[in-house]
Amino acid sequence: MSATDRGDHREDGEAEDLLLELRDLPIQDETSWRLRDRLVRLYRPTVAREASRFRNRGVDHEELCQVAYLGLMKAISGFDPSYNKRFLSYLLPTVSGEIKRHFRDSVWAVHAPRSVRDRRAELNRFVGEFTRIHARAPRQSEIGAHFGLDSQATGELLNASESYSAASIDTPRSMDGEGAEEPLSNGLGSIDHELDSVVDKQALRASLAELSERQQRVVVLSFFSEMAQTQIAEQLGCSQMQVSRVLRGTLDQLRSQLLGEGEEE
């Protein structure tokens, strides 16, 4: 017998004496609270070991311990010493059940129906067993046949099961050129505010192509080179007033063509 087993037997012997004394006391009695506190301190290491079995599954270890201690309190309240069973045999399933219930009900990245949450563990067991036997993952139809579901319900089950956990956008996904880790957020798309203007830009491109060479040059110098009208006039060898008339006439022409195309559509 290991040292841990011997310690558990000693804990059980003391725990059963405490639980016998606790059974006949009102819950608000001061002695009742003292006995419960003694039981909690007695089984704290055991409960912490049980919580450690569920580490690295997406829940903080401290949170797991808190859930496990809740299971300990439920076990203390629910154990009946008259059954002549070891308290430990009642405690461990109660604590592990509380932790599993916490995973099932509270750790999903998005809300999923209760039926899906209940089936996720069975789904994982079936996929693991099927893969071991057939050396491949099961097809959706084979999963549906196992659960007695049609194609749509099977797809919903698989999609919802994938929602159990989600990676933070700060999770490193790769290394950049300088050897630094890049977070997942670097690969996320963003809203392209220019998208709504694509159609207008394409229509404008066609209209610009129909302008005379002189008109095109005025537009380019004015809107792309951002030159003043006096500078454009020097470039073209004309007056600023002429540049102004050409530019105004060109813009009216473009506006008319674009509006005409919109009305035709």
Automatic annotation (TrEMBL):
Residues 169-191 are annotated as: Disordered. SUPFAM superfamilies: Sigma2 domain of RNA polymerase sigma factors (SSF88946), Sigma3 and sigma4 domains of RNA polymerase sigma factors (SSF88659). The keyword Transcription regulation applies. Gene3D superfamilies: 1.20.120.1810, 1.20.140.160. Keywords: DNA-binding, Sigma factor, Transcription, Transcription regulation. CDD domains: Sigma70_r4. It comes from the Bacteria. Residues 39-108, 208-255 form the RNA polymerase sigma-70 region domain. NCBIfam families: SigBFG, sigma70-ECF. PANTHER family: RNA POLYMERASE SIGMA-E FACTOR, SIGMA FACTOR F FLAGELLAR. This is SigB/SigF/SigG family RNA polymerase sigma factor.
